Amino acid sequence: xxxxxxxHSYFTATAIRGRFMVQGISAxxxxxxxxLVYWDxxxxxxxxxxxxxxxxxxxxxELQEIIDTSESGDNVIQIWIHExxxxxxxxxxxxxxxxxxxx
Length: 103
Fold this sequence. Notes:
Blueprint lengths: L8 E8 L2 E4 L16 E2 H7 L7 E3 L2 H12 L5 E6 L3 H17 L1
């Protein structure tokens, strides 16, 4: 585990059925970045289970493709998200929460 601010740190999320859950962030509460756990690149490489579908993402497009892929089926996809995407992930998470509340 490493401190936030490293060039190669990742936080985790899980995609299932077209939705994603960010580790440390409750779906029923407001986003609070201090609850994110960042992992160093070398730890992520060791922890990833590529054969099970785990993925590292560096772009919003990659993240959206994984979320879309999870929509078709019951696969659970572990996502390691580069820290540079935190603000975008927060935005997507907030949109998802609003969408859930309106359903």
